[in-house]
Design goal:
Layout: H1 2-7, E1 15-19, E2 24-27, E3 43-46, E4 53-56, E5 60-66, H2 69-72, H3 76-92, E6 99-101, E7 104-110, E8 121-132, E9 135-143, H4 176-190
Parallel strand pairs: 2-3
Antiparallel strand pairs: 1-5, 2-4, 5-9, 6-7, 7-8, 8-9
Helix pairs in contact: 3-4
Length: about 200
């Protein structure tokens, strides 16, 4: 991802990489060590993305849109908005109502319980972005059908008590590959450019 971004030029086509990672906690540039509560046997990796700490693992769809923002004519705030919109529209395909919460990047769903500022909500998708040479790297993760226990070992995105949820917990049985296909389609629609593959 870094090598692709470092070596690209104005003629380089944009790409969207859809992947699944083995269990790993990633620490963004703003991550505080006290938000990593009990990592146990799960690897911890420092990254160059924005944001705090999150968990990635099997059953989660991760998208890395590698986009030339200058060519698209947008800034990072608009990029984040478009990522969130693509996620919301992806979830709609399975009748899940994803929402934004002001001041907290990502996508949330209504879920009874919880405490504090996120009472009644749980996070289903996280974002972590970096801009290098006017191009985006890192991206977003959507929880589909995964072991959610590792989220209890951190303060997700730096928020103590923030609950994480996946589609399976909401009663939606869908393979991650189907979610990846829909997410890729929606990201292309929101990041359309003649160069996008």
């Amino acid at each position: 991802m870094r090598d692709f971004t470092r070596t690209r030029d104005a003629a380089t086509s944009d790409e969207i990489w859809l992947v699944e990672h083995p269990p790993v906690f990633t620490m963004g540039l703003a991550a505080r060590p006290d938000h990593l509560l009990a990592p146990g046997e799960i690897a911890v990796v420092a990254t160059e993305r924005g944001g705090q700490v999150t968990y990635h693992g099997p059953g989660q769809v991760i998208a890395y849109p590698l986009i030339d923002l200058r060519r698209l004519g947008i800034g990072v705030k608009e990029l984040v908005y478009r990522y969130e919109q693509a996620i919301i529209q992806t979830l709609e395909a399975w009748s899940v109502d994803g929402r934004r919460i002001a001041g907290a990047p990502g996508v949330f769903v209504a879920l009874e319980g919880g405490v504090g500022p996120f009472a009644g909500w749980a996070k289903i998708a996280a974002l972590g972005v970096r801009i290098m040479r006017g191009c985006s790297l890192h991206g977003l993760a959507v929880n589909v059908r995964m072991d959610l226990e590792p989220f209890d070992r951190i303060n997700p995105c730096g928020y103590p008590g923030l609950r994480s949820v996946d589609l399976a917990s909401l009663g939606v049985s869908v393979p991650p590959e189907a979610v990846a296909a829909r997410l890729g389609e929606r990201l292309v629609a929101h990041l359309r450019d003649d160069q996008l593959r």
